């Protein structure tokens, strides 16, 4: 795939996780010999952005069958040429007429674009998988993590001529619930306390580039360039840059509260979160404290997580080796470690876990493509 805009300062592993990650370079371009005549026609909206580029990477990695693919972006990006799986495509301007004959549209162009064009696409018979927050809390729109609540998509199918909107949850919510849900099913979570350590990737390719630039500037004794964030990011941490609401929580934190309740279909579960930006290039980490209705021993929890789809356990106390953002960068699985009994809660009714997941991958593009795969 050409024209990748993301800095690739990432770790790589294959199979089981190594004790020490090694850096990789960009994978060779994959060439698809032929398109699938029986596959759906797809469109990628916001294709030149960070998540849009990752959509293409995931589609290729998973051999998603499609008979045609349309590259859509803003007027500013229209006319750019992208090479994908050995074929060259011209980026088209997103308009109301872009969705004729499109079966599935993967959206990652921001909430305002989704609000304007998502319903238009759905009216034309396209099933829209939207990565923005535009429709997440709409009662009529399913909010889906395929490993967690696939039943939310009941009745949405290709080939019926009926369009639909499906929302991708927030990246922090996805990463958290991939680990918390298998435990919730076993012992029922009553309260969840989350602290996040969120990478530059969550703010897009420009933020990743600024972190890299700032790091060089600070090491060279120069003042850091602060365009994406209002303060120095390199060698610093600060509260997530989302707007702070009247209750003192920021929007990112409230997304975790509201989305968890919707995905779990449990309005009574208590959730509180503190979201922090850390100077990591890619992949988020989260410290999660869980209070259960029933006792759950840490050994049982570890076995549950080892058998959970999309989850890998890295929990080597002897070697003090636990999940890191570098190890999960560019990977599909969410890694869980530091699995231990919460000593402040009696009767084995509390656990602490530490979770890492690639925000661009499982936190965005992969989850959306998995939703699309469920439609096939």
UniProtKB/TrEMBL annotation:
Q: What keywords sit in the KW lines?
A: Amino-acid biosynthesis, Diaminopimelate biosynthesis, Lysine biosynthesis, Methionine biosynthesis, NADP, Oxidoreductase, Threonine biosynthesis
Q: Which residues form the Semialdehyde dehydrogenase NAD-binding domain?
A: 41-156
Its BP terms in the Gene Ontology are:
diaminopimelate biosynthetic process; isoleucine biosynthetic process; lysine biosynthetic process via diaminopimelate; methionine biosynthetic process; threonine biosynthetic process
Which reactions is this enzyme annotated as catalysing? L-aspartate 4-semialdehyde + phosphate + NADP(+) = 4-phospho-L-aspartate + NADPH + H(+)
Similarity comment text for this entry = Belongs to the aspartate-semialdehyde dehydrogenase family.
Which biological pathway?
A: Amino-acid biosynthesis; L-threonine biosynthesis; L-threonine from L-aspartate: step 2/5; Amino-acid biosynthesis; L-methionine biosynthesis via de novo pathway; L-homoserine from L-aspartate: step 2/3
Q: What is this protein called?
A: aspartate-semialdehyde dehydrogenase
Originating species? Arachis hypogaea
What quaternary arrangement does the UniProt entry report? Homodimer.
Q: Catalytic center at which residues? A: 171, 284
